[in-house]
Amino acid sequence: MRVEIVAVGTELLLGQIADTNGQWLGEQLAAAGVDSHFHQAVGDNGARIVSALRTALARGDGVIVCGGLGPTQDDITREALAEVMNVPLVRHPALVEWIAKFFAERGRTMSENNARQADVPVGATVMPQTRGTAPGLICPVGDKVMYAVPGVPHEMADMFVRGILPDLQARMAAAGEQAVIRSRVLRTWGPSESGLAEVLAGRFDALEQPAGDRGSVTIAFLASGIEGIKVRLTARAPTDEGARALLDAEEATVRQILSEAYGDVVFGLDDQSMERAVAALLVERGLTLGLAESLTGGLVASRLVDVPGASAWFRGAVVAYASEIKRTVLGLPEGPVVSEAAAAAMAEGARRVLGADVGLGITGVAGPDEQDGQPVGTVCFAVAAPDRSPVARRLQLPGDRPRIRQYATISALDALRRLLLETPVPEGWPIAGPERDGSSVD
Does residue 435 fall inside a structural domain? Predict the structure, then answer.
């Protein structure tokens, strides 16, 4: 079954609010095995809403309309639904009474325009409200259907669970459809989106072949700026177990391909951030961490303390922005403060001053001016651990001052992750930096 989402509201087109409803509904439809190939946004204009609804029905089996069910003159979704159905609107006295009671229970008097929310296209079924005043609607159009829900997110979500999802499931059962869609995201740092696409090109070709009754898998990329590139695997199968089995197999295959091409670039799954990946490794190994930050100015520490339970493994941070602080507190020798040697000394100083097992030091030039003869974007960081020499690296990062600081933060954490995994931190790493072909810099 294919269901399109139409978001109604001129404020969406003006960029005044984001369409979070569409995002949430897309996730819910996918989890229910419903395809959603198109999302639309349309302003508060009757003719354009009607056009959007007819377009959606022409290329799918149903449409979910969010917004335009309020009491004001620009709330015209009901009228558009009736026009598409080619039926009149009829006011339901019982709904008017219910809305009036809603206001009375809150010590308020219902305005006359609120009665508009009781107008229902002939042939439509009302989805009762439990959290507001605008009822939802289930509007049949031949063998297809239009669902209308309020734009208020918590009201929309409530109606989807109570009204839309059961109706969709009943329609799918009647049509003999049964499918489950599951997704899994591999989070990477280092390679560019174009580089990932190149090394996985053969996998794309293989997945285009007919999969039979077991189901199918697709791969897509999401450039996420300072969080790297996400590789999304999506499986469709008759059962949840089948979808998960397909994902397990495809994840193993993709990991192997990426590992052979780039090494250990997958740092997390789904919502696992870089700092959570680092935290898990520190806890697993029973190690504590101390930081010495310069150009990042506490960004690394801020990300780490976002992880619940950080006090068990995070000793603290020295934000040594001035050169004299680097020397007096962390023990840097005389010489340039933007160098691999300086980063190594900062990492060792963090271990010593904070009493940590592992030290991470980071220094560099965020701009706007160069420092120590080093250009803007130069970043040096090092990881110091027991019984080994510090591992230090130098990067040349792109972007403005905020981006350089953010890229430096996640790059340093990734270097720490690699050392904890005892996988190499290669020279010239990251391989491509934060998408140097430009597609994820923003």
Answer: no
**Does 441 fall in a domain?**
no
Residues 157 and 247 in one domain: no
Residue type, position 39, single letter? H
Classify residue 438: in a domain, yes or no: no
How many domains does the chain fold into? 3
Q: Taking the chain, what is the end-to-end CA distance rounded to the nearest angstrom?
A: 35
d(CA 162, CA 126): 12
Q: Express each pLDDT in 206-258 by its tens digit.
A: 887 765 567 889 898 888 888 889 999 989 888 889 999 999 999 999 999 99
- The whole-angstrom separation of Cα 338 and Cα 340 is 7
Name 48's bridge partners: none
Strand positions, DSSP E, 105-258: 119-121, 125-127, 136-141, 144-149, 180-188, 216-223, 229-237
Question: Given a cut of 90, is residue 30 above it in pLDDT?
Answer: no
Per residue in 309-325, pLDDT tens? 999 999 999 999 999 99
Amino acid (1-letter code) at residue 377 = G
Better pLDDT: 137 or 216: 137
- The answer to whether position 67 is within a domain reads yes
Length of the chain: 442
Q: Do residues 179 and 189 make contact, with C-beta atoms less than 8 angstroms apart?
A: no
User: Are residue 310 and residue 412 in the same domain, yes or no?
Assistant: yes
